[in-house]
């Protein structure tokens, strides 16, 4: 066991540059730039580790506490499942943070790490058990008997289990597979960290089965099992899903410690540093810091857009005497804008295809609405519900979804979320700038179907504010 003092000082993120770039990393950046591997410096479009992992102090502290708890030698006496849920819009760095944490824990060499992906390992009891089984020591007695159990599960077809008995059997198989995965060769146990990326895509029954199995194993008090889930905002709904049978996981005391929202809220200064430091290492000169500052503003606190900006700057500088010119109308500016627009267009297309363009417009209007004092209005669950219903009623293209399904779809795309503390909570848009784009589509670019429903959508919004007793000065109807 780590000593108490060293446990307190434990920094599982020490291997990740967060404030400045150590010499070794700086050299690697220079090499990547020279080899025109710009995405190895600014990995836009992949979940690779950014050169500098900025911000996220709150989430890092939540994950660090989890690590300390897992390594606490008094853990067995407390017998409670420990975990963190990273949830938020697309591209906010959930995977990057999850991987950084997982690597840091691996570096300690005393914890077994089981990495999973929701839509890969948690789609059936069979895949889940097989994956857990692959971590059990090969010749352990328990593994052999467990492997038999696994075969029975597969043969019994628990994927479609319906009876209570089958559910119990399945849970006990998952529990024994997990139990076996905590064993070391000589029969000793070691703490286990389970990470599940894209957890929102897991099957509810399997995710619930795993959480309940962890609880079972932990209750035996022999070993600590920590779990980190990462997913889009619909992950919280999945955890409350009836089939998941794990509402206890969120509802018990300690929820606040478990939930780690990941908004697009990187600070301007952090973003500036995340761009300038790697550029400096690559040997690129920024021609105007004021122009850079303006470009960073356009990233809207989004890690993904930040990496797109960095990658564009590197690629452009390579062809321009190693100079990065961020001024408006310059090449970086234009290419960055094109990339952002492409992302918005893709999102717009997936909404419009489902007949949800009207809903997007209504959500954007809620977000833009201001009180007579110029304050944003509080977006409650009721307002979201009403806005979505109005959007479905006046859909420019045929909508085949119910209100709940539409809300869930927006959450799935990471465009709508609350910080998960219940119906009284304030709701936000995952990427507000996308909704400006959606509004513009109705006014300027949208086809005749979109323009035809706009007056009804606008009038619905006014009635909605009136009925909700909200004094709203303007719902900026934009463009
Ligand atoms: N804290 C951060 N600082 C700088 N860049 C970051 C940070 N976190 C993530 N990134 C970068 O942002 C991009 C998106 O990150 P990532 O893929 O981890 O997001 P995600 O939330 O998992 O997205 P998705 O929901 O689509 O899976 C990647 O290029 C990553 O390198
Ligand atoms: Mg991800």
Helix-strand blueprint:
Elements: H1 4-9, H2 23-34, H3 57-70, H4 75-78, E1 82-87, H5 94-108, E2 112-117, H6 118-121, H7 125-133, H8 141-156, H9 164-181, E3 192-197, H10 204-219, E4 225-231, H11 234-239, H12 247-251, H13 255-258, E5 259-261, H14 268-282, E6 285-286, H15 289-297, H16 303-318, E7 323-324, H17 331-353, H18 357-368, H19 381-393, H20 403-412, E8 416-418, E9 427-429, H21 432-445, H22 448-467
Parallel strand pairs: 1-4, 1-5, 2-3, 3-4, 6-7
Antiparallel strand pairs: 8-9
Helix pairs in contact: 7-8, 7-9, 8-9, 9-10, 14-16, 16-17, 18-19, 18-21, 18-22, 19-20, 19-22
Bound molecules: adenosine-5'-triphosphate and magnesium ion (MG).
Describe this structure in words.
The protein is of the alpha/beta class and 479 residues long. It is built from 22 helices and nine strands. It has helices at 4-9, 23-34, 57-70, 75-78, 94-108, 118-121, 125-133, 141-156, 164-181, 204-219, 234-239, 247-251, 255-258, 268-282, 289-297, 303-318, 331-353, 357-368, 381-393, 403-412, 432-445, 448-467; strands spanning 82-87, 112-117, 192-197, 225-231, 259-261, 285-286, 323-324, 416-418, 427-429. Strands 2-3-4-1-5 form a five-stranded parallel sheet, with helices on both faces. Strands 6-7 form a two-stranded parallel ribbon. The protein has a two-stranded antiparallel ribbon with strand order 8-9. Strand 8 and strand 9 (427-429) form a beta hairpin. The N and C termini lie far apart (62 Å). The model is unreliable at 1-5 and 140-163 (pLDDT under 50).
């Amino acid at each position: 066991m780590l000593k108490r003092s060293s446990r307190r000082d434990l920094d599982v993120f020490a291997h990740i540059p967060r404030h400045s770039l150590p010499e070794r990393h700086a050299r690697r950046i220079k090499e990547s730039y020279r080899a025109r591997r710009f995405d190895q410096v600014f990995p836009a479009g992949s979940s690779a580790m950014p050169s500098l992992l900025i911000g996220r102090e709150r989430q890092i502290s939540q994950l660090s506490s989890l690590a300390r708890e897992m390594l606490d030698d008094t853990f067995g006496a407390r017998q409670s499942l420990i975990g963190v849920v990273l949830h938020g819009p697309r591209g906010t760095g959930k995977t990057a943070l999850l991987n950084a944490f997982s690597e840091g824990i691996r570096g300690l060499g005393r914890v077994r790490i089981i990495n999973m992906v929701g839509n890969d390992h948690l789609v059936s009891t069979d895949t889940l058990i097989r994956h857990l089984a692959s971590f059990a020591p090969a010749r352990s007695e328990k593994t052999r008997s467990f492997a038999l159990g696994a075969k029975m599960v597969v043969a019994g077809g628990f994927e479609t289990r319906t009876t209570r008995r089958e559910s119990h059997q399945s849970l006990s198989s998952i529990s024994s597979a997990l139990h076996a995965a905590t064993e070391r060769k000589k029969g000793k146990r070691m703490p286990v960290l389970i990470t599940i990326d894209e957890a929102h895509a897991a099957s509810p029954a399997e995710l619930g089965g795993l959480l309940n199995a962890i609880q079972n194993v932990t209750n035996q008090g022999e070993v600590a099992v920590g779990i980190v889930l990462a997913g889009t905002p619909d992950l919280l709904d999945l955890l409350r899903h009836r089939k998941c049978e794990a509402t206890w996981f969120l509802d018990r005391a300690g929820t606040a410690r478990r939930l780690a929202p990941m908004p697009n809220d990187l600070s301007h200064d952090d973003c500036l540093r995340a761009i300038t430091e790697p550029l400096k290492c690559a040997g690129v000169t920024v021609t105007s810091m004021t122009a850079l500052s303006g470009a960073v503003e356009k990233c809207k606190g989004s890690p993904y857009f930040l990496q797109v900006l960095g990658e564009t700057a590197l690629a452009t500088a390579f062809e321009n005497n190693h100079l990065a010119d961020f001024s408006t109308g310059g090449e970086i500016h234009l290419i960055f804008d094109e990339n952002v627009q492409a992302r918005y267009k893709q999102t717009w297309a997936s909404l419009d295809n489902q007949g949800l363009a009207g809903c997007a417009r209504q959500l954007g209007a809620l977000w833009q609405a201001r009180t007579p004092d110029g304050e944003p209005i509080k977006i409650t669950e009721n307002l979201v519900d009403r806005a979505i219903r109005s959007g479905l009623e006046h859909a420019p293209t045929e909508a085949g979804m119910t209100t709940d399904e539409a809300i869930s779809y927006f959450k799935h795309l990471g465009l709508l979320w609350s910080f998960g503390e219940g119906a009284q909570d304030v709701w936000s848009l995952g990427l507000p700038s996308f909704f400006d784009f959606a509004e513009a589509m109705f006014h300027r670019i949208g086809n005749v179907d979109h323009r035809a429903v706009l007056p009804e959508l606008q009038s619905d919004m006014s009635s909605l504010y009136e009925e909700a007793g909200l004094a709203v000065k303007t719902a900026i109807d934009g463009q």
